[in-house]
Amino acid sequence: MSEVLPWLVVAPVVPLASLPILAFRFDRVGWPVAAITATVHTALATWTAWTVAVDGPTRFVVGGLPARLGIELAADALSASFLLLVSLVGLWVLAYTRRGGPRSNLSYALYLALLAGLSGLCITRDVFNLYVFLEISGLAGYALVALGDGRDAAPAALRYLLVGTVGASLYLLGIGYLYVATGTLNMSAMAAELVAVGHDGRLVVAAFAFVTVGLGVKMALFPVHTWKPDAYRAAPAGIAALLAALVSTVAGYAFLRLLLSVFTATLFGVNPLLGASLRAAAVLSVGAGAVLAVRQRDVRRMLAYSSVSQFGVAVAGFALATPLGLAGGVVHLLGHAVMKSGAFAAVGVVEAATGARTVDEFAGLATDVPVTSGALAALSFGLVGIPPLVGFFGKWYIVLSAVRSGAWIVAAAVLASTLLSLSYFGRLVQRLYLESGSRPADTRYGAVSAGMVATAVVAALVALGLGLASAELVELLRPSLSGVGP
To answer: Which region holds residue 321: left if phi is over 0, alpha if psi is between -120 and 50, else beta?
Structure first.
């Protein structure tokens, strides 16, 4: 079974390398190649997740070298969950881009590069290779944003590139400090060395600080979030749905993986100030993101600022460093990825069908796009945190953990952000269903496909399913969150 792990990265790379050659002969070869690759990748990810659930964690060291020296790949319930997320979201977003675009061979080559990079991030157990996969997925993301049709696409992609490069560089500096302190790049070996070295040394504290800020940039936590609203606004709708679901989410997973498998819970026990600082940063992002989202009139920018707040909620769960808080953070990350992908897809359908882009322009459009509006309303309520959608359960576990830990500020921040999110998402749903308005001048009826609509509908159904199965998901994740992973 462990031999499957390398293929999760290799499977997208082989078609990626062949696309430029095939493009000389076929104009529209990109989508079929991407669709076949995504289907194969989903099958591999599903097999990996099933095997981990039945037989437990698995690992593979490239070249048969000792794990301390070689490149180790591993999968447990935590990594398999995010790997499956990457595959499934990548697959259903293709249903959107088949008609909604971008449909160039270049866009699908970049899509495959993103799929490979994100898959590697999920299964690597080497901190330097995590950086390599972070850069692969980052470069693909920057280029995908630049494919937008508007004149603001190139500046947004450039800003994304510059800020993302700073984040990656800070992460690299952090793992450099860790290497100096431990003499290894393997996560498990690094954790063992930190026990001997001690978690209170300056190198370790500095490493944690740089890694946290670096990955915080990738997650777009406040105040290092500035790239996200412009990037999600300028990117093609299908690309925005893909990036919103996966890029920051997998960066959040990478942060949690390092927290569990390298620094371990000992770090916060020895350095309580670090835990308090992380909780404060999370609370700041929760509040600032929600306030900024309330102020937005452009729907995509509103969704982007909402993500700033939502990732703050997940990091708050991680900062609590309790099994329930960690589980709540993971459930929230997974649920947010599904719901935000569907929300961007739904907004893309409305844009394509009517030309509406602002909250006010969405007034009365539920009669024109009823199925998409229903999916968008359901996803909006899920992002607020209304049961039985998954958005409720992640927040519930985090608030419950915060109350039990005496972290009242964290609990209050999550509850306050929920009320604020009800304000701006409620305003959007109100416009859709309860108000009437004039249609934008650039109306383009009929420019949507069943696949585009299905992307939003499937996301809403998956969000409901994850909510109903949240207790089982937490039990499945519990062994991976209880200590140092494989």
So the answer is: left
